[in-house]
Amino acid sequence: MSTSTLILREETAADWPAIDRLHQTAFNGPTEADLVRALHRAQAVVLSLIAEEDGGIAGHALYSRVLVEIGGEFVPALALAPLAVAPERQRRGVGSRLVEEAHRRLAAQGEGMVFVVGDPAYYERFGFSKAAARPFKTPYDGPHVMALALNSGVPASGIVRYPIAFAELA
Fold first, then answer.
1. Is residue 98 part of a domain?
2. Which of 45, 52, 54 is nearest to 82 (CA)?
3. Rg of the chain over all Cα atoms, to the nearest angstrom
4. How far apart are CA 54 and CA 67, in angstroms?
5. Based on the structure, what is the number of domains in the chain?
6. Is there a domain that residue 42 lies in?
7. Cβ distance 40 to 15 under 8 Å?
8. What are the pLDDT digits (tens) for 10-56?
């Protein structure tokens, strides 16, 4: 039985090398780590939350700014990507704690809507829904696109514009 404590906090620049290693390990390659760096360079990061355990980074969730275009007007929204948990710490609730805490903070800040591309069996537990995403056009349309309203007054449909960093993924 472990007595370690999971600490959830916003990243600092000092965490970047460990976050980079975490994504490369969790995803068996550099793509997600490259995305994190590119989103930071583009100043598109809204929230970057880490889970720290036993002095190391056990998990990381990054939320970046996307825009929903509706008739030539733009409404701010968010994309959750990437979310990573160290392989040896998976299936222990680290990812769930990160997402739940991030959503609590983002809702309190007045953020309206989050989009994610991922496994519905995982993300639906947080309230994400394929049905909520269906009226939106995204570059990733398909069975793995989901949306979640964090607050009221979110758009019912539109075109989701992601930061260019997503299009540059290898």
1. yes
2. 45
3. 16
4. 37
5. 1
6. yes
7. no
8. 999 999 999 999 999 999 999 999 999 999 999 999 999 999 998 89
Hey, what are 51's tokens? Answer: 């889970």
Domain, as residue range, for 98: 6-167
In eight-state DSSP terms, residue 53 is: E
Report which of 166, 160, 123 is spatially closest to residue 141, judged by C-alpha positions: 160
pLDDT value for 19:
97
Whether residue 1 lies inside any domain: the answer is no
- Nearest Cα to Cα of residue 109 among 139, 168, 150, 142: 150
Smallest CA-to-CA distance from 50 within 73, 18, 79 is with 18
Give first-to-last CA distance, the chain, whole Å.
Answer: 40
Residue type, 133: A
- Contact yes or no for 92/66 (Cβ under 8 A): no
Short-list 3, 91, 100, 95, CA closest to 57: 95
pLDDT at 2 over 60: no
Confidence band for 1, pLDDT divided at 50, 70 and 90: very low
Which CATH number goes with the domain that contains 135? Answer: 3.40.630.30
> Can you list the positions of beta strands (E) in 54-110?
56-70, 73-85
Instruction: Give yes or no for a cis peptide into 76 (omega within 30° of 0).
Output: no
pLDDT in tens, 72-104: 999 999 999 999 999 998 989 999 999 999 999
| 92 touches 51 (CB < 8 A) | no
